[in-house]
Design brief:
It contains 13 helices and ten strands. The protein has about 400 residues and is α/β, with parallel strands linked by helices. Helix 1 packs antiparallel against helix 3 and helix 12 crosses helix 13.
Length: about 400
């Protein structure tokens, strides 16, 4: 048992390291294959192959150390086992020659020693496998022990129906955990009336996307509160909150299923007719029908068969199908050409009717139709009003407009 105790912990630690190195290699392969076009465009095939090869060699070196330690454990057990049998034979033979021990008794001891030795040898093999599995399970155990910071309240409050989707940000301050010294939102206060379309504009890093993340309750503010129809988001269940929101993100996620499955992601119980109607409203019906199998066509992993504009139209179709009272648009037309954007804007105008809408756009031409434009900088609101009033006022919005429209 002594070698198991001595070498066991080392085998377990090396098993964990081996799993870590394999995970590192798999992560490099995954990100490189998903960015294959960028790798080819920058002629980095050899460099990325070298990175992956180095990761594999590190994993191999760790595996060799683990196998070596496991071999030492097995060798130590074998030496001790055969040593024990030899010791029994040597001691027993001396007693038989001296006449103090019957040969039959010696035979019994030898058989017992062989049984014990075989059991200990089997135990060392099984225990080695257990330690290897325990090392590999440490990563899974860490994940299982993780507790989400954003959870449902003990006594949740539900929104009253019909949901009006009136929003209020009340002196919200928030710092990302990775940037505790820089406030993403700083004393942010904003009221949005039911059915109002509000556009958030400003330079990169102004906090626009953070506003949407807070509404979806991916994070909770360090101070202040966010309310929908007077109910604090922290008093609602996550399912109730997010069930009232339809999102069109800047980077659309396409799953490896059919076009119908990807649009139905917005509402699982939607019929095929509703899916097609949503696609028509999002100007996606034409290119979907042009695919080999139409709505049953596979989109491929991460939507590799679609262009950026087509992926965004799928995302807009999801939002239309969801039919939620609160609509969040994060650069919803950033990947579209001018002709497609004009068609999508008509679809978005139909979608926004009767809904509270929060729009993020860097291209100011896409936010001029908003009821109100909120200009952000450094996590604060620096100005708000209509397109014309903000131009007349000057300041940051007028400067952004000058840079875009003059160019």
């Amino acid at each position: 048992m002594l070698p198991i105790l001595v070498f066991g912990r080392r085998v377990q630690k090396l098993s964990r390291e081996s799993q870590d190195r394999l995970a590192d290699a798999a992560a490099i392969a995954n990100e490189t294959l998903n960015a294959s076009t960028a790798v080819k465009a920058y002629a980095r095939e050899a460099i990325e192959s070298g990175r992956y090869g180095s990761a594999i060699m590190r994993a191999l070196a760790t595996a060799r150390r683990r196998i070596g330690m496991r071999s030492l454990l097995t060798a130590a057990v074998i030496v001790l086992v055969f040593g024990a049998i030899t010791l029994v034979l040597w001691t027993g033979a001396r007693h038989v020659l001296a006449g103090t021990l019957d040969p039959g008794v010696l035979g019994q001891f030898v058989v017992y020693a062989m049984f014990a030795a075989g059991s200990v040898a089997s135990l060392s093999e099984v225990w080695g496998d257990v330690l290897r599995a325990a090392g590999a399970m440490e990563r899974i155990g860490e994940l299982l022990r993780e507790q989400p910071e954003i959870t449902d309240p003990a006594m949740p409050v539900s929104l009253r129906t019909p949901i009006r989707a009136a929003l209020r940000f009340d002196h919200v301050t928030f710092h990302y955990p990775t940037r505790p010294d820089a406030a993403a939102l700083n004393d942010f206060t904003l009221d949005i009336q039911p059915g109002e379309t509000v556009a958030l504009v400003g330079p990169s890093g102004a906090g626009k996307s953070t506003v949407l993340a807070m509404l979806l309750r991916f994070y909770d503010p360090q101070s202040g509160s966010i309310r929908i129809d007077g109910v604090d988001l922290r008093e609602m269940t996550l399912a109730n909150l997010r069930g009232t929101i339809a999102l069109v993100p800047q980077e659309t996620v396409i799953f490896s299923g059919s076009a119908t499955d990807n649009i139905r992601f917005g509402r699982q119980d939607a019929s095929d007719d509703e899916v097609r109607e949503a696609a028509r409203a999002a100007e996606a019906d034409g290119f979907i029908r042009a695919l080999n199998d139409g709505y049953d066509s596979e989109m491929g992993e991460r939507g590799v068969r679609l262009s950026g504009g087509q992926r965004q139209r799928i995302a807009i179709a999801r939002a239309i199908l969801r039919d939620a009272p609160l609509l969040l648009l994060d650069e919803a037309t950033s990947a579209l050409d001018a002709q497609s954007e004009a068609a999508i804007q008509q679809a978005l105008e139909r979608l926004e009717k009767g809904r509270t809408t929060l729009v993020i756009a860097h291209r100011l031409a896409t936010v001029q139709r908003a009821d109100r434009i909120v200009v952000m900088d450094g996590g604060r609101i620096v100005a708000q009003g209509t397109h014309e009033s903000l131009l007349a006022e000057g300041g940051l919005y007028a400067e952004l407009a000058r840079l875009q429209f003059v160019a």
